[in-house]
Amino acid sequence: MLNLRRGIGTHQPSVISLGQVWVDIMMNVDEVPPQGGFAVADHPKPSIGGSYRVLEAASRMGVPAEHAGILGNGLWAHFIRQSFQDNGITHIGQDRLDEDSGFRVVLSAEEPTDSHKKTFIASYGAEAHGDADTFAMLEPQANDVVHISGNTLMDHTATGVDGFLLKAGTDPAKRDYTLVINPTNTLRLVNDHMLEDLVLARPIWSCNRQEAMTLAERLGAPIDDSKVTIGGGLDDFMHQLCDGLGSTLRAPLVVRVGSRGAWVREPGGETTHIEGFPTKAVHTRSAGGCHTGAMCAMLAEGRDLAESVKVANAATSVAIAHSVNGVPQCPDYDEAAALLQ
Questions:
Q1: Interval 61-104: pLDDT, tens
Q2: Which residues constitute the domain of residue 118?
Q3: Domain tally for the chain?
Q4: Which end of the chain offers a freer environment for a tag, N or C, measured as fewer CB atoms within 10 Å?
Q5: DSSP codes of every residue in 234-285
Q6: Residues with Cβ within 8 Å of residue 62, at least 6 apart in sequence
């Protein structure tokens, strides 16, 4: 099925995501009500969530983007499929006719302290009901970038991801494609067996600082966060974090730190800081998907990791300055390149 969908002919390297895609229904309320309470939401705003943002960013960077996860059949799945079509994303994964894709209700309350607190209510659908054969037909071609997200690692579909990882092997040099994982904030809930197989596959790890610290804690990497918690020393701490975690993973590591850009470490190499592009943020949702998608797109074009991260930093800076309903909007490549210049 997968090979037929991808077609026959000259191959253009693509970004392929195994991640789950669902619909987010964002509601702004004055205060999240207690059990049995009542609240009025201000203009509910549906948008596509999950790995869609990675694929959307890759497509806007000018690289073919393909979704290898499961889509359902129904109202939410139709919304997702239409968004794929509108944004040049191809669905190459399985289709389920017996259930719809899932959705998440996101309640956002602005407290008097101006700190935004979000409450998530998930209704899982077809995307979460895969099995060991979900990705069995996936055969990445030369220079493709395969993206795995943490949102696919906690339900039945995780067995399919695990099967793909075992087929991918433990030596990146023997793969003619690139494997990238962004673990998301769900990393602490991933079981030990799944995490072990992820580490053994030695992908490129793309994390924010919180995710990197959680990963370091789970793996027992030698990290001392006292320098940053006492009041300063971010640069020293980031070098220590990347050196300790990177040597434990024995894999490339990218750690994002907002407007400061990202720190990058290659196996056996030095940790390098790639500066970001500070801008006025107008977003309320994470821009991590934009960064990961833009980075994957540049890797698919054959750029090295440092250059790919540099472009991703620029794309993310533009994205957070141009949001739709609080969701960062990844620019096209030319707009990101203009910021680099």
A1: 999 999 999 999 999 999 999 999 999 999 999 999 999 999 99
A2: 2-7+15-340
A3: 1
A4: C
A5: HHHHHHHHHHHHHHHHTS-EEEE-GGG-EEEE-TTS-EEEE---------SS
A6: 297, 332, 333
Give dist(CA 340, CA 337) in Å, integer.
5
* Residues in the chain, total: 341
From the number of C-beta atoms within 10 Å of its C-beta (0-12, 13-18, 19+), residue 199 rates as buried
> Residue 142 sits in a domain of what CATH number?
3.40.1190.20
What burial letters (b/e) apply to 11-49, b meaning 16+ CB within 10 Å?
eebbbbbbbbbbbbbbbbeeeeeeeeeeeeeeeebebbb
DSSP code per residue over 101-142: --EEEEEEEE-TT--EEEEEEEE--GGG---TTTTTT----T
- Lookup result for tokens 């253009």: 12
Whether residue 223 has pLDDT greater than 70: yes
Q: Which pLDDT value is given to residue 286?
A: 75
Residue 128 CA to residue 151 CA, distance in Å, equals 9
CB 69 within 8 A of CB 53: no
What is the arithmetic mean of pLDDT over 254-279?
Answer: 92
Confidence of residue 341 (pLDDT cuts 50, 70, 90): confident
Q: Structure tokens of 311? A: 């472009």
CB-facing half-sphere around the CA of 144: CA atoms within 13 A: 20
Nearest Cα neighbor of 147 from 181, 123, 113 is: 181
Contacts 24+ apart (CB under 8 A), 298-302: 298/61, 299/145, 299/178, 299/180, 299/204, 300/13, 300/14, 300/15, 300/58, 300/63, 300/143, 300/144, 300/145, 300/178, 301/13, 301/63, 302/13, 302/143
Task: Inform me whether the pLDDT recorded for 210 exceeds 70.
Answer: yes
Distance, in Å, from the CA atom of 42 to the CA atom of 37, rounded to the nearest integer, reads: 17
Return the minimum-mean-pLDDT range out of 113-122, 141-150, 290-299, 303-312: 113-122
